[in-house]
What does this fold into?
Amino acid sequence: MSEIQSCEASIDGINFRLKEPFDFSFLKKYGQVFKVLDNQDSGNICFGVEDSRYKYFIKFAGAPTVRANLNEEEAIATLKNTIQIYRDLAHPILARLINAEEIGGGFAAVFEWVDAICMGRQYQQEHQQFMALPLVTRTKIFEEIMAFHVHMAAQGYVAIDFYDGSIMYSQPDSRTIICDIDFYSKAPYTNQMGRLWGSGLFMSPEEFTLGAEIDEVTNIYVMGATAFALLSGYDRTPEKWPLDMRLYNVVKQATSDKREERQQSIRQLIKEWEAAK
It folds into this structure.
């Protein structure tokens, strides 16, 4: 495999990588950059920016990022499509959208900045910090993620590409944050790709099957996989499960390869989880 060509870039003293140079001077509109997240495969590059009063998380499409799985035009179109999703699914634990605009030859979505650590394994140091959170905290995070997805289903959406990189936690204010819901879609949704976007550790068999229906039962699998990731370090064996085995059985059922064997709604999953506690 040939090595990806890249160049070093810098803004406000923060170094990062791109495929080729790009002018980010438009970010001065929002303040000074204090963090850059350039290791995304979405085609977006993300910035932490602050002015004299606020901090912002800015997701920008249109720059030649190193790991992109799509070109700049596709990344812009995808990011534009996400704006209505964030508005429709607004929720206390969803990253709060502040603004969205065409700028700098691309498109920017501006969110409230939260001082949080990300569970995503692409950020190894933060991932280790996240997995070192107390078990009771990680259990609370899982329960709040399930509650958000009940809200999502009530709005007529299905979760696509939900994975550990979508999960954040703010230790200062004990707050769970869900981010990166860019591929969530209105139901009904049919798999027209074969392998959908996402991490295989979180994906149901339907998400690998051309023509399969993607629905709330699919998302039951995603929630079960999330429980194993959060609570037993991605290990699905009973030996590694840290809680009561009745809870293990609930989550194991949720991750059945057979749709008919899973719980049939996220509300049912929550009900069974609570009853097993």
Remarks:
- The radius of gyration is 19 Å.
- The first helix runs from residue 72 to 88.
- The mean pLDDT is 95.
